[in-house]
Structure formats: structure tokens, C-alpha cells
Amino acid sequence: MERIYKFIVLHGSPKGDVSVTMQFVRFLQFRFKEHSFEVINISSNIKSIENGGIESIIDRMNKADGIIWAYPVYHFVVPAQYVRFIELLYDNRDKLDLQNKYATALSTSIHFYDNLAEDYIRDISADLGLQYVRGFLAAKNDLLIESKQTNLTKFFKRFTHHIDQNWTVENLAIKAEIPAKIKFPMHFDGTQRVLTDKKFLLITDATEENNNLFNMVKYCTQKMSSNLKVVNLNHINVNGGCRGCLRCGARGDCVINDELRSIIEGDLISADGIIIATTIKTRYISSLMKTLWDRSFLHGHIPIYNNKSILYLCSGSYTPFIKNEFEARINVFGGNLIGVIHDNVSCDQLLKQLNSSIENLIYSTERSIEVPRNFLGVAGHKIFRDYVYLAKSVFRAGHEYFKKTNYYDFPQTSWITKIKVAILMLKLKYRPIDQKFQSKINDGMIREIKKVVDKMSA
Ligand SMILES: Cc1cc2nc3c(=O)[nH]c(=O)nc-3n(C[C@H](O)[C@H](O)[C@H](O)COP(=O)(O)O)c2cc1C
Hints:
Layout: E1 6-11, H1 20-31, E2 36-41, H2 46-63, E3 66-72, H3 80-91, E4 102-109, H4 114-127, E5 131-139, H5 146-165, E6 200-204, H6 211-223, E7 228-232, H7 248-251, H8 259-270, E8 273-279, H9 287-295, E9 309-315, H10 320-332, E10 336-342, H11 347-366, H12 375-390, H13 396-404, H14 415-427, H15 431-439, H16 441-457
The chain binds flavin mononucleotide.
């Protein structure tokens, strides 16, 4: 007979009880009445958790048999408030007693980079000593489908079975290396760049405590003295994280009125070249930097980095998850990622890379260099395209933009293509035509593009 367990559900939606994710949690509560589920609304109560509430949560986590990370995917990962909570857990690691307890994830999303969010939670779990069992990454409407309900039920049964059987779980987390403090030169002694009329923006969360990042930022400001606007998120008024109210969907404005909003609405859009200088804290960017990304949701799904070159600087343990997140974020929104400079290398290497990357940023920005999107951006665009089309009543601003800019590039809407394909399919039913077609597939594939190149030699 299976045992009875006490689960702690760390619920991450800023919407509290009125969230999609919470409905999935309630589903589990009703399906598995034999177990107890204590739900803690993390993101909607982050202020009180910061002000001492963390202690009692840690106490309850320590006493539980299993931890459920239940969160919505927000801007490629989890909401900034949830990241803040994880920072608090790290700050209180000496009080945590989670060694070999089981944990899993229950996420809701539109399947846009829900894998990245899970990678983060998996790595966090490993750092906290938990045995992480692969999560259930639901689409937000999955509960409407009976077969998906069955899947969720089976998934959770298997999770409890892990605890019953004391199964050892594969550990996919990459070990995080903590970089040594590098002795970065405090004074810039290279060539200063006189910038053209292009606008450059540097956004950072650097503090003097994080010496490496602070000095990298200083290096940039000294090298790029003119036309570089520096915004330190620690020095502006930030009135909380995104609340997920979706009020921005209609007109692209945010209900939170603070300085961060004007940076996102103004500087982020008008800049031609951008440097993001971020601290890596809990295997990810800081919750402050994540607040910037979540709040940039006011621009919805439009490619705000089109024609912009972007350079990342970061300090902390740099892992493949972080690289993937940076690349996906810039690629999806149409930007040209110059590179990621991090301090997991020697001081000499870092200086050379930094200097060259700033040159590259200036060069690329002055020439508006655009690069093709790779899979991350192309796939992301298709998800956005389909989603905004179906949810256009909510995302009216995005819908208008997508219509105007041919972002709705559904292949099946071209009648000419449809007719051509239908005629060809009919012809191919006739065996001799099919045989000829098969023998000329490769020639056919290059027929039109070859003409473009042939013309050049004419
Ligand atoms: C600010 C914001 C950012 C979002 N970012 C993503 C995302 O990156 N990927 C995704 O698949 N869904 C994203 N979504 C959609 C939510 O993950 C999805 O609607 C989820 O079910 C909401 O759950 P909740 O009601 O529990 O907050 C985002 C929604 C909001 C409001």
C-alpha cells in the first residue's frame, strides 16, 4: 500500500489564487485526497516573504515529504518574484534541510521555452540537495482535455512512486563553478571610442560588492564615453514585478508606474546598441534583472531588438542554461547577439574579449548588421504568431503589429502556393512523372536560387 505524504507546493504565479497554475494544483488536491498539499503563494506575497516570512517557509519545506515547484513560465523562465524567493532560499541555505527529499515541477505556459524554466528549477533543486524528478510542463488549457488530465494523474502517481521506492534520480544539473575574484584593472587605459550618432544603452544590476561586474561596467563607460546611457537598476525606482494582469495586451502600456517602465518604453526601444551587464546569483540573472525582462512584456510579442546589436556581460557561475537563455531571448526578439563576456576566464582573456566585443558592438551597430534567426528564433516566432493570432482579443497591440509587418506568415494562406502544390500532387500520381520528379529533386531544389548566383557572373 502506498504511503501518505505531505507536499509543499511553492506556487509561483503573481496572480495568487486566481491563476491558471493554481487550477492544476487544485486538480491534484482533489485527485489525491489521501495526501496533503500545503500551498504557499510565493510571488504574490514576495514582500512579506522578504520581510521575514522566509523562515517559516523553510521550516515547512524541511518538514515536507516532497516539494512541488508550481509556476507559470514568464519571459522564458519563471517570474522575477519566484527568482527572488530562490535568492532568499540561497541566502538561508544553512537553515535548509532538504537533502535527498524529492521535488518536481508543475508548470503552465504556452510551451514557449518552458524547457528553459524547467532547466532552471532542476539546477536549483540540485543545488539545494533535492532529488529532482522531471516535471509536468502543461499547456495552460490542458485541463480542458480529458487525456491530459489522465496524464497529469499518472505523472503524479509516478512522482509519489519515486518517494515510495526511494528511486535515485538522474542528476542532469551541471555543476556550477564559482569564479575567482579577478583583479580587473580599475582604470581604463585603452583607446577611447568616439561614437557616431547611434544610441547605446547599458543596463546593469552591478553593485560595488560585485567587483568583477562593476569593473566591467566601468570599463565600458570609460571606453564608450559619449552616446552611452547607463541605467543601473539599483538606482532607479522599481515598483515590483509583472503582475500578469495582461492590461498591456490591448495598448502596450503597463499599470505599474515607475522609472523602470519609462526605461522599458523609451530607452530600450530607442537604443541602437545595448549592453546588458548582469549578476549571476542563483544560477541565473538576478531577480532585479529578471524584473526588467518580465516587465518588458508590455511590448508583448513584437521583435523589439530588430536591427539592434546586443552584448551581454555577466559575473557569476556561467552555465549552458544561462547561455541558452541569453541566446533564445535575443534571437526570438530579432537581435544580433554579439556575445557573452563572463568572468569564468582569466583576467587577461576577459580584458581582451571585452575590448574586442565592445569594438564588435560598435561596428555592428553602426552598420545595422542583421543576422538570420536560428532555430531558437524561428521556432519562437511561429509559436508567437499562432498564439497572438488566436488570442488577438487580448493582444490587440501585438495583433496590429503582426498584421502590419507580415509577421503572420502562415504558409497555408497563399492560394497560389496551395493551387501549385495541389496540381503537382495530382501529377505525381502518374508514375512516369513521379519517377522524373524523383530523379530531379536536387536540381529542383536549387533551380531558383541558382539563377540569383548565376546572374552575378553574367
Ligand atoms: C509576463 C508574462 C510572460 C509570459 N511569458 C511566457 C513565456 O515566456 N513562455 C510561455 O510559454 N508562456 C508565457 N506566458 C504565459 C503564461 O505562462 C501562461 O499564460 C500561464 O499559464 C499563466 O499562468 P498563471 O495564470 O498561473 O500565472 C507569459 C505570461 C505573462 C503574463
